[in-house]
Design goal:
Blueprint lengths: L5 E9 L3 E4 H5 L6 H8 L3 E4 L6 H16 L8 E5 L10 H9 L5 E5 L5 H14 L6 E8 L9 H4 L4 E10 L8 E10 L7 E2 L11 H5 L6 E2 L1 H23 L6 E6 L4 H10 L11 H4 L6 H11 L8 E8 L3 E9 L1
Helix pairs in contact: 3-4, 8-9
Bound molecules: coenzyme A.
Coenzyme A (COA) binds next to helix 2, helix 6, helix 8 and strand 12.
Length: about 325
């Protein structure tokens, strides 16, 4: 029997209109454009409007992915939403998106794997499609980081931005002329390092109190320099595992789409695998780190630029809080 192959048949993204520049941040905390650019590569990031949420941005990205694939929301049977900045702890952001899209046939749920979440979602979609359980799955990554970033903490507030990306996953041959086969996905977690990136309060361990609000415990905290070392090591490992599993040589990778957390981290990864710098997709300069949505936003930008030719391979790789990491090998069809 012919094997069912999971394929991305539609892509979409959404970025809020308002840009927060390094010059703006210079007025908010003790920092400089030069420090931010040399240490991270970021020039500006997008910030959601007051009434834009993870759900509303996710809906916009998903609509574009459906339109791209020529599929109606009513034909989607599963919605997987990656977010670490949900509208609510309950209900899920996925449920709100399902209603917003009028995707009444779909069951919907959130996953939380921080910045690696889109690749975790792809892995689930691949398994659902290849098992025959479901046929049209939206994987959406959407983040309103600005709601959890402490704009008095210069070590984090210069890094993050808001945005959403989405992919429709179906089986190969579903009627779409082009797309990307999801050839392999590798995932990993190291919970021992969970304190390196965390939001200490808001969960059941530390519900909101006057004290937790006063001491700014509801904001994201990160030990940047430690995270940096893990990011390079873990993303390198995830790529190696992915290539080994598929017996694909490094030289077969036409494009690398790394999580956009720091330009220097991306450079280190591209050097380790001898991937030319111009073959690394970079959106960090204009959008900053949008957590789990960096990878689908960058994939959508590469797709729109027609950068990838038929049968060429691209490698997605991400790393984030948890710690979590993941890599996925795609082939353009
Ligand atoms: C956050 C990051 C850009 C900081 O760069 P770095 O080179 O590691 O810088 P350090 O944290 O060592 O800080 C160096 C100095 O700059 C200062 N600094 C930190 N943020 C600053 C800012 N926005 N402006 C000016 N100075 C700043 C620090 O206080 C420190 O000063 P000190 O030496 O007097 O103590 C970098 O560590 C990073 O990208 N980490 C990984 C992030 C990541 O991968 N996240 C993925 C999961 S989301």
């Amino acid at each position: 029997m012919k094997k069912t192959i999971a394929t991305i048949t539609g892509l979409g993204s959404y970025l809020p209109e308002r840009a927060l520049t390094n010059a703006d941040l210079e007025k908010m905390v003790e920092t400089s454009h030069e420090w931010i650019v040399t240490r991270s590569g970021i020039v500006e990031r997008r910030i959601a409007a007051e009434k834009e949420y993870a759900s509303t941005m996710g809906i916009e990205a998903a609509k574009k992915a459906l339109e791209h694939a020529g599929v109606k929301a009513a034909d989607v049977d599963c919605i997987i939403v990656s977010t670490m900045t949900p509208d609510f702890l309950c209900p899920s952001t996925a449920a709100i998106i399902q209603h917003g899209l009028q995707a009444h046939r779909a069951f919907a749920f959130d996953i939380q794997a921080a910045c690696s979440g889109f690749i975790y979602g792809l892995s689930l979609a691949k398994a659902f499609i290849e098992s025959g359980a479901h046929s049209s799955i939206l994987v959406i990554a959407t983040e309103k980081n600005s709601a959890f970033v402490d704009y008095t903490d210069r070590t984090t507030c210069v890094l993050f931005g808001d945005g959403a990306g989405a992919a429709l996953v179906q089986k190969a041959g579903s009627g779409c002329a082009s797309g990307y086969t999801i050839d392999h996905v590798c995932l990993g977690t190291d919970g021992e390092q969970s304190e390196l990136i965390c939001i200490p309060a808001s969960g059941c361990r530390q519900p909101a109190t006057d004290e937790s609000v006063r001491t700014r415990q509801h904001y994201l905290k990160m030990v940047g320099s430690e995270v940096y070392k893990h990011a390079v090591r873990r993303m390198e490992m995830a790529i190696k595992h992915c290539l080994e599993a598929m017996q694909v040589p490094e030289s077969d990778i036409s494009w690398l789409i790394p999580h956009q957390a720091n330009l220097r981290i991306m450079e280190a990864i591209s050097k380790r695998f001898s991937i030319p710098w111009e073959r690394v997709v970079k959106t960090i300069e204009k959008y900053g780190n949008t957590s789990s949505s960096t990878v689908p936003i960058a994939l959508h930008e590469l797709d729109r630029s027609s950068g990838l030719k038929q049968d060429e391979r691209c490698l997605l790789v991400a790393f984030g809080g948890g710690l979590t990491w993941g890599a996925s090998l795609l082939t353009k069809i």
